[in-house]
């Protein structure tokens, strides 16, 4: 754990303000859920809560199935990081922070389909070999909780697929996002 040197007092309602610099660095937005932990040394720890994180093993199985049956590279994210993937290296993606561009796609709350010649959107800063071909945010009970993406790579750049293939891929990604949303709600 790293000390910031910032000290805040608790107000008469039991609230404490998390400084703007820390919220920006940790990508904590207004309304984000935070989980509270304590330890025996008297420390109180706030951790961003990932609603879809509870479904990570189920999401992993869904990604594996989608990848195997449809021959797609798939990632499933919460709002901040990759929680599951298939068809690509898990070590290179899982638990890695998503790019701001992918966050923007999620916040748009609609389906994203990369157009030929369009600047690629990458999933993580660490990987620039795989870009997002299709993405659909996962929205549960009106809240944005994550995203399902199919990926393309530099080696298949010229092989974007026919329009019917892309439409099927888009429907598969939308179905996955809707299904994970329903699993979260139940």
Structural notes for this entry:
- It contains five helices and seven strands, in the order αββαββααβββα.
- It has 186 residues and is of the alpha+beta class.
- Strand 6 (130-140) and strand 7 form a beta hairpin.
- The radius of gyration is 18 Å and the shape is elongated.
Attribute tags:
5-stranded antiparallel beta sheet, 5 helices, two-stranded antiparallel sheet, 31% helix, alpha+beta, 186 residues
Q: How large is the radius of gyration?
A: 18 Å
> In what order do the strands lie side by side in the largest sheet?
4-3-7-6-5
Total helical segments: 5
Quaternary structure annotation: single chain
Mean pLDDT: 87
Helix content: 25-40%
Q: How many β-strand runs?
A: 7
Terminal residue distance: 35 Å
Shape: elongated
Structural class by SSE content: alpha+beta
- What's the SSE pattern? HEEHEEHHEEEH
Task: Describe how the helices and strands are arranged.
Layout: H1 20-25, E1 34-38, E2 44-48, H2 56-70, E3 73-77, E4 82-86, H3 90-93, H4 100-108, E5 112-113, E6 130-140, E7 143-153, H5 163-185
Antiparallel strand pairs: 1-2, 3-4, 3-7, 5-6, 6-7
Would you summarize the structure shown here?
The chain has 186 residues and is α+β, with helices and mostly antiparallel strands. The chain is built from 5 helices and 7 strands; from the N terminus they run αββαββααβββα. A 5-stranded antiparallel sheet has the order 4-3-7-6-5, with helices on both faces.
